[in-house]
Specification:
By secondary structure, the protein is of the alpha+beta class. The protein has helices spanning 2-96, 103-130, 144-154, 156-161, 181-199, 254-264, 291-295, and strands at residues 140-143, 165-169, 176-179, 206-214, 217-224, 268-274, 278-286. It binds adenosine-5'-diphosphate (ADP) and magnesium ion.
Length: 297
């Protein structure tokens, strides 16, 4: 009897133990699953962080490249500027003393025209290389809408003459950011001029300029229904002297200058484009106050 009981008890005990072990196992399994989940979240976070570091490294390298190029190009431009101005003076002196009907006069007029074109290129390069060094303009709170209005007034003739449909859409209360206004005007103008060039031969000559608050940024969007940008050119947009336009018409310094200005404001310049459909440019300017005074002076 005793033997039978102890056998039953043993069975019961081992059954209970088995159940306990099964329970422990299921807890361990759940814990393993939880840890695996945690690991995969951490993995995603790690990938994100790695991505950010990679992007930041590319940015830093680009910034270093631009800074070095700016110093180099600025030095060359500066050295070229004085003798070129002297050449222009000599040409203009000769023009003054020549018979306007003579063949030499016409040749010298062409020389004057070409020299002025060189001077224009030099001026843009100097603007690019001096941007960082310039600190004369104090950052002030400015309404982006005022800047856009000024640009449209400036280009009213060209817009009308080419029958371009420019739509403007800004919030009623405006879009106010701390910025160096003339610099942001220059950047926005450069971007808008490209949009004008892009719609020149389009069927639908439409450009939309919109402003909005988006998270920590004030955003100016310039969207055109122009020729669009080829995929292979997207990464060259901010390279100095990159242009797909007619030689002599364009210098290819509009976007490097715009990019440098927006970088100095700790902003972002984002391009999306589809060939034959159009281009959308986003200028993001951070809203946090006080950043300008630290970073731009
Ligand atoms: N909105 C746009 N639509 C089509 N192409 C554009 C646009 N903006 C820029 N691009 C391309 O980027 C190039 C560089 O622009 P930019 O630096 O302003 O120089 P540029 O206007 O003198 O060519 C242009 O030549 C053009 O190929
Ligand atoms: Mg341009």
């Amino acid at each position: 009897m005793d033997n039978q009981k102890s056998e039953k008890q043993l069975l019961f005990e081992s059954n209970r133990r088995l159940q306990e072990v099964a329970q422990e196992l299921s807890i361990a399994k759940k814990e393993r699953e939880r840890l695996l989940d945690e690991l995969s979240v951490k993995n995603v976070e790690l990938k994100d962080a790695l991505n950010k570091v990679q992007k930041q490294t590319v940015r830093l390298m680009q910034a270093a490249k631009m800074a070095a190029l700016g110093v180099f190009a600025g030095g060359v431009a500066h050295e070229l500027n004085n003798p070129l101005m002297a050449v222009l003076n000599y040409i203009q002196f000769c023009l003054k003393h020549l018979d306007k009907e003579s063949q030499l006069y016409k040749v010298l007029q062409d020389a004057e025209h070409e020299t002025k074109r060189c001077a224009k290129v030099i001026k843009t390069v100097l603007t690019f290389s001096r941007l960082k060094a310039e600190g004369e303009e104090d950052p002030v709170e400015t309404d982006c809408y005022i800047i856009v209005k000024r640009i449209l007034e400036l280009l009213a003739y060209r817009i009308e003459a080419n029958e371009i449909n420019v739509k403007v859409d800004f919030p009623d209360q405006g879009l106010v950011v701390t910025m160096k206004p003339s610099k942001i005007q220059q950047a926005t103008l450069n971007i808008f001029l490209n949009a004008l060039d892009a719609v020149q031969v389009s069927k639908d000559k439409e450009i939309v300029i919109a402003g909005k608050y988006e998270g920590d940024y004030a955003v100016i969007v310039i969207a055109d229904k122009g020729c669009g940008i080829e995929e292979k050119d997207m990464e060259k947009l901010f390279d100095p002297f990159f242009t797909t336009k007619e030689a002599g018409k364009s210098v290819g310094m509009g976007l490097p200058i715009a990019k440098q200005i927006i970088d100095d404001h700790q902003g972002e310049l984002i391009y999306e484009s589809e060939l034959g459909v159009g281009t959308k440019v986003k200028i993001l300017l951070p809203l946090k106050k006080g950043y300008c005074a630290i970073n731009l002076k």
